[in-house]
Every structure is written in structure tokens, then in C-alpha cells.
Amino acid sequence: MDTLAVVLEQPERLALSRLALTPAGPLDAVVEIAWSGISTGTERLLWSGRMPPFPGLGYPLVPGYESVGTIVTAPRESGLAPGDSVFVPGARCFGPVRGLFGGAASHLVVPAARLVPVDPGLGAQACLLALAATAQHALGPIGPGERPLIVGHGVLGRLLARLTRLAGAEPTVWETDPTRIAGAHGYPVLAPEDDPRTDYARITDVSGDAAGLDRLIARLAPGGEIVLAGFYEAPLAFAFPPAFAREARIRVAAEWRPDDLASATALATAGRLSLDGLITHQAPAVEAQAAYRTAFTDPACLKMVLDWRARA
């Protein structure tokens, strides 16, 4: 069996190629992909060649960890059946072509245990579940009445703000791009210079800006915490005296865990966590090259989704 896949042959050179799939083993499922999202964090770094050293990194590779499709075949004991809708957090089934993260393809062979059943009514929005799980993981314990700061108003920042509000807290969001400030969001979205506060107990940065720590530390309350939830291509550094004076804490939010994905999926399925307004662009998979450039260069593009349902 083969698959049509997005292949990053080298930095800034992308192709749509036919690849042989690794044969399915007794614990594997075969999934026909309907949609896959393009990450403007890790995938942008892979595309540009600026990705820091990472396990499995090398070219050629198949990117993507935000895929949704239907089961073609699955082990009987998995509880999955042909036609079931599932979220696929990536795959490694392309032989000598690396799968980092391996979800941008028309068909995938994946261990059935990694698949997450989803409500088919979510459609392409189910691609957002990985980012929702990332936001859930970064959120950590938070209580009603807290007033945290979120830095960055892309899809991850918006999901984090929505989850923060679900917890009863009142987020403020910083954003420097006017196109991402505009609109009614249910919480204030400000340019940093328009925010006078310097008493944030928690600041969560999802911007990926490695040069911004000093600015954030200056806005912390004593004993406050900065959560690093973006992906940073450059080393992070900060001036020690201001952090010392505030007894600042810095926490790194790593990759989401299965319970984060389960929680985010349940909230989205129940309609409590809205995924509306986050997918701003869709393109047929055959137009992948142009779609990736749009995703990485157009600030009005929050999330680009490839549609694999019609293939040449």
C-alpha cells in the first residue's frame, strides 16, 4: 500500500510524493486521512531549516501531527471499527523517509492505541485537538478569579484563553499584530505597551519569542511564575537581578500528555470548548506547497488545514 504525502525534501523545498507505507502489524490501524493541520510553530521551523536539534530530525521528512480521518482497518481488540472517526497525532510509517511528525498524508499506518476517537460532527475542527491539548497542559492548576497574562494570540493563545475562562479565571492577552487584536473575544487583547499591569501572578508565553523574558519578568508580581509554552529556536536568557528581586519562577510546559488530549477532546465534544473561528484557511492537499507558504507568511492565517478528500 502507498500514500500521497507532504515531503519536506530539504529546507524550503516541499513536494507531494507517493511513498510506500510500512505494512500494518497486528496492533496497527490503517487510517484514511480527511484533513491535516499545518503547525506554524514546529513545522515552520522544519520548513525553514531552523529547527533546533530534535529526535528524528533530518530530511527528507513527512511533517504533521494534527490529522483527522476514518478507520480503514483496525485490530479487533482495539475497539475501533472501519468508518470510525479518529484523531491521529502523527505516524512513522514511511520506511526511509522520516516521520517528524508524520501526519500529513492521505493514508497512515498507526498503532491503534495512539488513535483518539472523535465526534465526526467536529469535522476539520478536530485537527485543533493537539493544540487544545497543548493549551490544557500549559494551563496547569488555575482557579476562579485569577487574572493571568497570555502572550500571543494565535490559535494556541486563543485556546489557552478559552480554557482559562472555562476555569473561571479572567485572562489578558498580549499581541503585537493588529490583525490578531481586532474582534470581540470575551477577554481583553492588548499591545504590551497598552497594558499598565506589573502584578501578574502567572504569565504564559506562547509566542515563541526567545528574546522576551526580561519584558515578562518586569510584569511579574513577587513570587510570580512564567510558563514557557511556545517552541523556541534560539537560546533563552534573562537578566538575573530583576528575576532575583521578584523571586520569579520559570516553568517549561512540555508536550501534552494523553490525559490532556482526553480532557480537551471531551470539552470540545461537549461544546464547552469552542473551536470556532480558529481555522481561517483550507486548501486541497494537491496545493500543499502554496498552502504551507500561506500558513507561514500570512498573519491573517491562524490555521491552515489541508483537505485530503479529493486527490489527483
Automatic annotation (TrEMBL):
It holds the Pfam family ADH_N. The gene is lgoD. Belongs to the zinc-containing alcohol dehydrogenase family. This is L-galactonate-5-dehydrogenase. Its cofactor is Zn(2+). One of its GO terms (molecular function) is metal ion binding. Keywords: Metal-binding, Oxidoreductase, Zinc. Gene3D superfamilies: Medium-chain alcohol dehydrogenases, catalytic domain (3.90.180.10), NAD(P)-binding Rossmann-like Domain (3.40.50.720). InterPro entries: ADH-like_N, BchC, GroES-like_sf, NAD(P)-bd_dom_sf. Residues 26-119 form the Alcohol dehydrogenase-like N-terminal domain.
